[in-house]
Amino acid sequence: MQDQKTEQRGPLRKRLLAALAAGTLALSAQAQFESPSEGVYKDRVDWGVMMDLSGPASGSQGIWTNGFQAYVRSINEKGGVSGRRINVLAEDSRFNPAQDKINYEKLSTQTPVLAISGMGSSSSQVSLAPTIRGGKIPIVGTYTHTKPLSEPTSPLVYGGFCTYPEMAKAGVGYMTEKLKIKSPKVMVVSIESAGGVEYAQFIADAVKKYGGTSSLVTMKITAADVTPQVLEIIKQKPDFITIYGVGNTAILTMKAMHQYGLKIPAFGISYLMSPQIYAAIGPEAGPNYNVISCFTPGGADQSAGNKEMMAAADKYNHSAMKEDVNYVAGWVVGQMAVQALQLAGPQPTRARLVEAMSKGFTVNTNGLSAPIVFTPTDHDGPSRFRMIGYDYAAKKYVSFGEFADYEKYMK
Amino acid sequence: MLIQVLLSGIALGSIYGLVALGFAVVFKATDVFNFAQGMFVAFGAYFAVTTINLLGLPFPLAVAAIIAASAALGVVIHIVLIQPLSGRPMLSVIMLTIALSIVMRAVIEILYGVQSRTLSTPMPTGIFLVGDVRISQLHLVAAGVSWLCMAAFGAFFKFTSIGLLMRATADGHEAALVSGVNVKVMNRLAWAIGAGLAAIGGLFLGQLQIVSPELEHIGLLALPAVVIGGMQSIPGAIIGGLLVGLIEQLSATYISPKSSDILVYVLLLAILMVRPWGLFGQRELGRV
Amino acid sequence: MTATVLRSGAPRAAAPSPWRWLWWALAAAALLYLPILLTERQIFGFRLSNMMLLNIGLSQVNLMLITMLGALSLNYLTGSAGLISIGHAAFYAVGAMTAAITGSQWGWPFPLVLIAAGLGGALAGLLAGLPSLRVRGLYFVLSTFAVHYLVVFAFMEYQFKFFDVVGVPYKNATLGSWTLSTPMRWYFFLLPLVIVVYLLLRNSLRTREGRAMQAMRDHELAATANGIDVRFLRLKAFAFSSAIAAVGGALYAYYLSNVTSEFFGIQFAIQFIAMIIIGGMGSLPGAVVGAAVWLLLPSIITGLTAQAGDTTGLLRSVLVDHKPQLVQAIFGMLVIVLLIFAPWGIAGMATRLKARLTAWWSRS
Questions:
Q1: From B261, which residue of chain A is nearest by alpha-carbon distance?
Q2: What is the pTM of this model?
Q3: Contact between chains at B265 and C150 (C-beta distance less than 8 A)
Q4: Contacts with A260 (C-beta within 8 Å, 6 or more apart), sequence order
Q5: Residues of C with Cβ-Cβ distance to B224 under 8 angstroms
Q6: A111 touches chain C (CB under 8 A)
Q7: What is the pLDDT of residues B241-284, one digit of tens each?
Q8: Which CATH number characterizes residue A275's domain?
Q9: Which end of chain A is more exposed for a tag (fewer CB within 10 A), N or C?
Q10: Which domain holds residue A217?
């Protein structure tokens, strides 16, 4: 009997030892997994960012990058993902589309990265679309949306900023309901650009559902005075207007309307939200101006995500930026990137990351936006909105309702 | 409606005229086509943000500080960069001013960050209502101050002895040297004036919209203004600025916003073909 | 005995051909191996770090070659014919627009599109050069400044009218059956093209007409007195240089596969002037060097500042948060220093250095 037991124990022990050895080997293999040609090393992962860090667009894109870097830094301080810290390689597009072609090559082969976030230039997206779609590097969280890159849905590309069609629907729906209008007459005030024309079309589609009409008036991006445009507004007498462009577009329009005694409510696209813009518009004209946004800027509510972002911003010397919508947008894409990286597992490669993301995943931003849902066919990005205004007395943002309250406008 | 557009055109044009005047003074005195004039405008706006909003100086003191700082900047740039290049081919000097504007922009972005800044001054922001016409008080102040500066400089050049010396120096360097005029000082004075005027323009433009390095592009509209008016002519620069402002607003209202840029440059081209020395300039003999 | 024979200097005149051939062979080998080096990023199995390759990639080199066409043609115009123009971005735009019409709209094959672009550029150059009949110097520069804005406006209108607002697409860069689909293929297409253009311009300067042009540049009155039709020559020079720039523009459009009017802004125009000044006006090799410096130097500076490593505090704030601005500032200052201390550009410095070395060599 005893001999039998010893005999049975023998192979069992051997098997246990073998399993233990295999397990240790596997673990150490995991800890030592690296793929330098894709930016994955033993202790760090290289992650690329392509944005305008200098030049005219840097006012918003530079801040976005700071938000992204801040979130990544906060994660690194907690140990990173799977024992690796995330090293952000931010390449400057310098407002030069050819530069992005150079930057993409750099991030593919010269200083390879696992994935790229940002891509703030529409022209670059269109120009690089064939290369990106036919390549291997995933783009996680784009700053702007262009058809050639995003349609048809590619497993490599994931949107990271507020989507325009839903923006138009939410804005038009909210204003129509709030102002209690039957068939709204809407004017789009925009800079002369491709995006402006497209946005005006989305507004027109949204307005049609309510039986209203819409029209478009444009201005130069470097306009110093908008008297001609305001005179057009006076002529047409819209129920409300919406503004597409850069900060100046909103500031000049609101101030000029105030100068002419017009009290027409206006809402700007999600990009046009920062304390500077509100301060420049001034407390007299400001209350008429709101922003339809998929992100919640710092201080606009007390969600966990918001508090976390504000604390980090103060810690990393970004206090001046935390109330800028671009900062929170970058932060959220940071969350997107980290959560995607976690999905890729402890041995991430570009292929594994793409595979994990394309199955579909939801980004939880802890209240900084509605949950961002990616499905195998929908990679558009944050598509739930709410209107945000500014309280000049309290010097804080005010959010009108929750994201869920705007669901009804999405049909 | 038309009056409204004309008024806004005059207001804007006055600011362009101011910047163009600074440009013309520099060109007349030192023969330098200063592509960095737009950045001087931006610097003026940023000086304003520093003195008024960051340091909180009382407004009159702040304005004095802005003008002094810009003038000093102009002088420094002349000493360090322009003087060593005197006598060099024009293209080199133009390229120098372009490189200078690149450096200046980078410095602003490093010192103040890439975010744009708000400028809030005690200047009035309300409106006057005259019948049906609304006049922005800020526009009025801007136009008024611009005209005051331009008149002051007109008087300075015509009636004071230093002004006379500057004009003499601009007309003939060698003759001035021979007469014992300190040409270097005259040139530096010209650059100080050019930078100072641009700074005042920046102060108003920054208040009218927002302070960012993009103000440079608005400042660059002073270039066609100066050429149309006449590069060697002080009143020409002012009239040129007004013309550009009016054309911009009128065409933006009655044709289309895009057309305003084109019309200005078409006019520029036409002037260059028909009357290259500008509306008020003097025909230059033997210029090859 | 042998030493004295050597000293008498005869060998210098009959420059040792073997050395020249070796030099050319090495240069050719380097140029041929460069794209492989930049793509593989290793030599004989030894992997090179990014900084060893000066933070440069093949796309950059290709873009540099395309822009070099502009630098060469502008140099030809300015340094040789004495006309200064800020309109070169406009001619790139004209080339892109012609390519859009003939290629993207009418579907012509790529080589024909390039020829059409060249012709379009020549025509535009003829028109743009007309003010030169009336004005000179600074005023002519300003007329090209105005032309620039007008052409870019025309491109924008064209783009909005015929194409998607996102930009004008360019497809099918194929030569017969060979598609230019990878950077390496582009390189092997662009390099011979640039060399051909260089030789074309250089030889054109050596012809009778070329010498006439340089005479015109140096002293117009004397040239006219000698029976040279100055005005006709000037227009011809303008047309020729614009044609080359337009071809460059078409190539630029196809390389990026999508362009908008914003690509051809005033910054784009200024860069050509910067290149010829840095390289040295009037010197074709200078244009090559100038283009290389202007396009490659920012990447090199960026790479170097990245090496500064992990620092904290003020230094970190400047180096990390404001790295792009720092690069711009350094770059601008380098240009300024060059302009003040080396007005004849790098080519000028090289010539001077060579002269000094030669003098030292023949003295010793």
A1: A220
A2: 0.85
A3: yes
A4: A230, A234, B127, B134
A5: 146
A6: yes
A7: 999 999 988 888 888 777 887 888 888 888 888 888 888 877 66
A8: 3.40.50.2300
A9: N
A10: 164-293+386-410
